[in-house]
UniProtKB/TrEMBL annotation:
Lineage: Eukaryota, Metazoa, Ecdysozoa, Nematoda, Chromadorea
PANTHER family given in the database record: MAJOR FACILITATOR SUPERFAMILY (MFS) PROFILE DOMAIN-CONTAINING PROTEIN, SOLUTE CARRIER FAMILY 2
Single GO MF annotation: hexose transmembrane transporter activity
Protein name as catalogued: Major facilitator superfamily (MFS) profile domain-containing protein
GO cellular component, one term: membrane
Length: 543
């Protein structure tokens, strides 16, 4: 099964990497404290800021993380392919240490500008983390455990959400003198990552399919799993190798122009759009107000917000077990349908409370909020791992770059636009865009998202092609005139280009340190030896 090194690698990456989403939410409970500090700082400079100007500075401090994350997401492909998955995470950890240090020094130096710069740097770190961590976790894990490994990323994110809200409470480290501790805390775990991860193995997929180094691949696998799992893991890599030519340098733009990759790209982008339009950012930001409207005291309302964050974390933890039993598609459908129903109920209850002053409606809104957190937590890991599962290795970094960039761009837009939109249309109507997109996304996932559990990329590609061909034929039967005008004709077979990507081939594999051998889609073996004997002897010698 898994080795001790594997568990150390996973734990190091999720604590030092995934948990850095702490930065995004730590600012919310400390809002009153920070605005007070901003006012005092500008007053000491002789600059008297109006309330509107302070709100503008505050908005910049909050949203600059998303700006940095967009740049970080766009850097995922070049960093992951030039430095590798592991070394890219180490480089990213250095960003985190620098950003956390700047946030910690902002108060002693009385400089809101340093706080903004620190949060931008931490935003870059979060953007890179969004792509690199799921990619690394899923590539060092055998296929049948891949989903659970990818889910660990979002479990750590959920943990960081409530943990940041806990540390930033005024009663903990969110006070006037102690808030730099809460803001600088992520630098500690990032520093540990930078110290431990260099001793962990690189992704075997990167070593074989990108670096073309067979010996390094075998060494990486041998450090991660036992001989039995290692043989299967290596055969899976060889199968993927035969179905692609990783010597090509694939650009991000190629995914938009390639016909056979268009539908997988649409799928991984749309599930990310669906995730952001569940309204999670708005829910987390205004849940305290909902509790206040229900008649709770301010302190109790803050702790209630912390409570729903813990509920989100617990249900995200349950997805680690459910994702391999029920599959990605089922959990995604459950999340989107539950979120749609919960948001609809919240909209109705807040409308009844605002226009008819029905006191019980506020408690109905809280119940809907709890149901929302349960559904959202179970399906929250899925979008972050879809791109890593449905794309072959040579396209993976480009696909992840696009998906993560879309995600953080939407986070930035929604975080800026939601408050003015809410003030314009009212609280109850402000949920409507999220309800509409979530309902459409439920239908989209039902018809187009394939189940990726325990499947190889070529099997997933065939499933996607079959679904898209079926929908195309159905649409042409319903709207033949529209289909004819677009020049589309039904087809029972995958396109020639796609079939070329799916047909197993036999190629020669050349490693700088070994003579060329022949390998098939199922095993790599030197002449005269079986795959099992060769791999057993190799790892036995290394150990």
């Amino acid at each position: 099964m898994f080795t001790f090194t594997y568990y150390v690698s996973v734990l190091t990456v999720i604590i030092g990497g995934s948990a850095q989403f702490y930065t995004y939410d730590v600012i919310n409970p400390a809002q009153t404290t920070l605005i007070k500090w901003l006012n005092q700082t500008y007053s000491s400079r002789g600059e008297l800021k109006t309330e509107a100007e302070l709100n503008m500075v505050w908005s910049m401090i909050v949203s600059c993380v998303a700006i940095g994350a967009i740049f970080g997401a766009l850097s995922t492909k070049p960093l992951s392919e030039r430095l590798g998955r592991r070394n890219g995470l180490i480089f990213n950890g250095i960003f985190n240490v620098i950003g956390a240090l700047l946030e910690y020094l902002a108060k002693p130096l009385s400089s809101p500008e340093i706080l903004v710069i620190g949060r931008i740097i931490l935003g870059v770190n979060m953007g890179l983390t969004s792509g690199l961590v799921p990619m690394y976790l899923m590539e060092i894990t055998p296929t049948k455990y891949r989903g659970s490994a990818g889910t660990c990323h979002m479990v750590a994110v959920a943990f960081s959400d409530w943990f940041s809200m806990l540390l930033a409470l005024p009663e903990v480290f969110g006070g006037d003198e102690t808030w730099p501790i809460a803001f600088g805390f992520p630098g500690i775990t990032a520093f540990l990552l930078c110290c431990i991860l260099p001793f962990c193995p690189e992704s075997p997929k990167f070593s074989l399919l990108i670096k073309q180094d067979r010996v390094a691949t075998l060494n990486d696998i041998g450090r991660l799993v036992d001989v039995h799992e290692g043989q299967q893991m290596y055969e899976d890599l060889i199968r993927e190798k035969t179905n692609s030519d990783t010597n090509e340098n694939i650009s991000v733009s190629y995914l938009f122009t390639s016909k056979e990759l268009r539908m997988p790209l649409i799928i991984c982008v749309w599930v990310m759009v669906a995730q952001q339009f569940t309204g999670a950012a708005a829910i987390f930001a205004y849940s305290t107000n909902m509790f206040l409207n229900a008649g709770l005291e301010p302190q109790i309302a803050r702790f209630s917000t912390l409570g729903i964050s813990i509920i989100y974390f617990l249900f995200a933890c349950s997805s680690v077990h459910l994702i391999e039993r029920k599959g990605r598609r089922v959990l995604s459908l459950f999340q989107l349908s539950t979120v749609t129903a919960s948001l609809t109920a919240m909209s109705i209850f807040t409308w009844a409370q605002a226009y008819y002053n029905i006191k019980l409606a506020s408690y109905g809104a809280i119940a809907a909020l709890l149901a929302y957190m349960c559904g959202y937590g179970i399906g929250s890991p899925i979008p972050w791992m879809i791109a890593s599962e449905i794309f072959p290795t040579k396209y993976r970094s480009s696909a992840v770059t696009i998906a993560i960039s879309v995600a953080w761009s939407l986070v930035f837009i929604i975080s800026l636009a939601y408050l003015p939109f809410k003030q314009w249309v009212g609280v109850s109507a402000s949920y409507l865009p999220f309800i509409i997109v979530s309902a459409i996304s439920t239908c989209f996932v039902y018809f187009l998202l394939p189940e990726t559990r325990n499947k190889h990329t070529n099997e997933i590609a065939q499933d996607i092609q079959l679904r898209s061909d079926t929908i195309r034929r159905y649409s042409l039967n319903i709207l033949p005139s529209v289909g004819s005008s677009m020049g589309i004709s039904p087809s029972n077979e995958a396109s020639e280009d796609m079939r070329q990507h799916l047909i197993p081939r036999t190629k020669s594999f050349n490693s700088p340190s070994t003579p060329p051998y022949k390998y098939s889609s199922f095993a790599f073996t030197p002449p005269g030896e079986t795959s099992e004997n060769f791999l057993t002897k190799f790892w036995g010698q290394k150990r």
